[in-house]
Amino acid sequence: MKIATITFLVSVLLASASCQPKNTSIKPVLAQQEAIEKIELSSEVLQEYETAYFASGCFWCVEAIFESVKGVKEVVSGYSGGTEKNPTYEQVAYGRTRHAEAVEVFYDPEVISFTKLVQVFFGSHDPTSLNRQGPDSGAQYRSIAFYKNAAEKKIITNYMTLLESKGVYDRPIVTQVKEFDVFYKAEDYHQDFEKRNPNNSYIRNVSIPRYNRFKENFKSYLKEGSH
Description:
Order of helices and strands: HEHEHEHEEEHEEHH
Distance between the termini: 22 Å
Number of helices: 7
CATH class: Alpha Beta
Number of strands: 8
Largest sheet: 6 strands, mixed
Mean pLDDT: 87
Shape: globular
Oligomer: single chain
CATH topology: Peptide Methionine Sulfoxide Reductase, Chain A
Number of domains: 1
Structural class: alpha+beta
Low-confidence stretches: 1-16, 23-39
Strand content: 15-25%
């Protein structure tokens, strides 16, 4: 399969638009929440699907991107990559842990492969940006591709080698390839944040433009209605 050239440009965005909390007393606004019907999937249903884990900046953005992909059943925002148990958003966002904002992707391997999910991962962020994505900086926003076994690790490293051999990026890829250990689900108000808060300044100025750039390069990967 011919792999499309990934063209991802990191924009200079409003300093006021940030995934980081402004203070320790966060009171999120769930805009239009009453108009959004969230179907809660039981753990029994989700157990029927494979899981993959990625970190590539603010999880609000990453969750929305993976949820638009065919074969993905559910995406959960959370924390991974560190050693601290049961981290909170304030701890992670302020860099008080070694965790990164990450997502748990439940997918049907008969519809989409792990290889294609890796392509989505690299094609939806800047893997050459060290400890930063867009306006968000710090190790909590670093790029990580997690693997659960040797086969997944090989897929990730082979694809990174391919990207570098094709000269897709002007700078070296700094994505960490890390064995998956544990994933902690983020607080409820972070789940489906983009859907629930379409008028949030960060969503309008960062998440949606990032999502739109991804869609331009991966149209054939999108669910019906996500175009």
